[in-house]
Amino acid sequence: MEKPQVIFVNSMSDLFHKEVPVDFIVRAFHVMRRANWHVFQVLTKRSRRLLDLDSKLRWAPNIWMGVSVECQEYTCRLDDLRGTGAALKFVSFEPLIGPLPDLNLEGIDWAIVGGESGPGARKMEMEWVIDIRDQCLKAKVPFFFKQWGGVNKKRAGRELEGRTWDSMPPIEIAI
Predict the structure, then answer these.
(1) How far apart are the first and last CA of the chain?
(2) For residues 109 and 34, what is the distance between their CA atoms, to the nearest angstrom?
(3) Contact assessment for residue 89 and residue 61, using Cβ atoms and an 8 Å cutoff
(4) How many CB atoms lie within 10 A of CB 151?
(5) How many other CB atoms are there within 10 angstroms of residue 58's CB atom?
(6) If you ran DSSP here, which 8-state letter would residue 11 be given?
(7) How many Cβ atoms from other residues are within 10 Å of residue 28's Cβ?
(8) Structure pTM?
(9) Where are the domains of the chain?
């Protein structure tokens, strides 16, 4: 069998939005389980609903579950994520709009950091990114730095302290 592919889908929607019917979510998980040659990354800001529905979901190693944490106010989403049966749990610190000292990264398998982009984008401070990176290194959590963001994210680039950070969890741990 070929090595699984990681699928990056940016649909700008949230599977765990309150208006998405539970049976639709259950069916989506069924489809993802059946397509086990792919790795699906599901990202939500609605971590409470995710946790509430966890017992109705049949998790599979190819379904990676993540939550967005953009500032200190939303670090509770990490606790909700840890309470799920997802085989691989990740956090997207994007758009990062505030410092996140003293993160509890226990049970987190991957961290992604990125700045806000587009018109009106809020600035992300380098110190915030470095702090998260250092916390990930200490906790042995793979760290992926996606972008600085800004009005022209391509010009801003994605280097942090002179290098790119592309760490990902080994796919083998999920498949």
Answers:
(1) 12
(2) 23
(3) no
(4) 11
(5) 11
(6) -
(7) 16
(8) 0.89
(9) 5-173
What single letter denotes the amino acid at residue 116? E
pLDDT tens digit string along 83-123? Answer: 999 999 999 999 999 999 999 999 999 999 999 988 888 99
143 — phi, psi (to 5°)? -120, 130
The SS3 assignment for 129 reads: helix
Contact criterion met (CB below 8 Å) for 108 and 90: yes
12: left (phi over 0), alpha (psi -120 to 50) or beta: left
Please give the Cα distance from 31 to 170 (Å, whole number). 23
| Rounded to 5°, angle at Cα 117 from 113 and 118 | 170
Q: Are strands 110-114 and 88-93 parallel, antiparallel or unpaired?
A: parallel
SS3 label, residue 171: helix
For tokens 């290194």, name the residue: 137
